[in-house]
Amino acid sequence: MRWTFRRLVPPFRQGRPRLVSLGRRAADAVADFVLPRTCAFCGAIGRRDDDWPVCAACRRDLPWTGAACPRCARPLGAAAGRDLACGRCLVRPPSFSSAYAPLRYAFPVDAAVKALKFNADLVFVPALAALALPWLRQQVRNWDCLVPVPLHRWRQARRGFNQAMELARWLARHGGLPAVDAAVRRRRTRPQSELPANARRANVRGAFRVVAPAVPARVLLVDDVMTTGETCGELARVLLAAGAAEVGVLCMARAMPALRAAAVQTGTAGSKV
Q1: Which residue among 86, 104, 142, 165 is buried most deeply as judged by most CB within 10 Å?
Q2: Would the CA dihedral through 115, 121, 127, 131 be positive or negative?
Q3: How many helices (H) and strands (E) does the chain have?
Q4: 3 state DSSP class of 165
Q5: Is 6 helix (H, G, I), strand (E, B) or coil?
Q6: Is 5 domain-assigned?
Q7: Residue 144's CATH number
Q8: How far apart are CA 268 and CA 129, in angstroms?
Q9: Do residue 136 and residue 190 come from a single domain?
Q10: What is the per-residue pLDDT across 105-160, written as a single tens digit (0 to 9) for each?
């Protein structure tokens, strides 16, 4: 399909909770007529009984992750077996026990994430989070809370929000788990996207500090994109040291190493990991 990236409806029309009272349902119907809900990606007007912020056509054509490493969510390609860990996790397992990303960091997901982070297009909060919601509802009994990956206070003040917190809040409202600010970023770090893979671990080492008086036993980290996993790995290490028994990761998209992208898309990468 042709991606147009038209957004006709402000963010508050997307992903709102179902109204239960008759009066509020009537008001909602009027609002849908005046400001019809549209797909965040293509702008198509959705049906009134369709609570998805992404239309069916876009959901069908988005770059879904498919087969992936259960430990780090790295896409493995169609040739990979189910629950097959990638070679990197077999050699050096991360601090977190599992990771899930419904989407690959490819167009139009990459453009949506950048629009959210750098243009404050908050319409993509429900659009991205809703695509992870079915998995979260299946896993809700395995976790005690959602913990967004924190930004440094100066970067958050400059941006005006923390996209991971916005995603966690939306998932908390709709997924049945509380969102907890359990940690802060104690020092400024360079953006991981500016660094080569071998420098990212040193960049985030010692960057986080736990501020929650008691850390829940089973913590699920929430972030927008995972690339090497070093940021989530460092935060997981700190939370485990503070008393958590298990830490998992839920990110909206998983970036693929450039050299493996073509192999994963053709389904030939699984046997080489």
Answers
A1: 104
A2: positive
A3: 10, 7
A4: helix
A5: coil
A6: no
A7: 3.40.50
A8: 29
A9: yes
A10: 999 999 999 999 999 999 999 999 999 999 999 999 999 999 999 999 999 999 99
Domain match, 19 and 114 both: no
The alpha carbon torsion through 176, 100, 102, 203 (nearest 10 deg) reads 110
Q: In whole angstroms, what is the distance from residue 257 CA to residue 229 CA?
A: 12
168 vs 222: CA distance, rounded Å: 6
CA distance 230 to 233: 5
| Position 6 in a domain | no
Give the Cα separation of 94 and 195 in Å (integer).
19
Query: For residue 96, which amino acid is it?
Result: F
From 59, 82, 99, the end of a domain falls on 59
Is 203 among the domain residues?
A: yes
Full domain range(s) for residue 45:
11-59
pTM, rounded to two decimals: 0.82
Does residue 65 contact residue 101 with C-beta atoms inside 8 Å?
A: yes
Residue 3 belongs to a domain? no
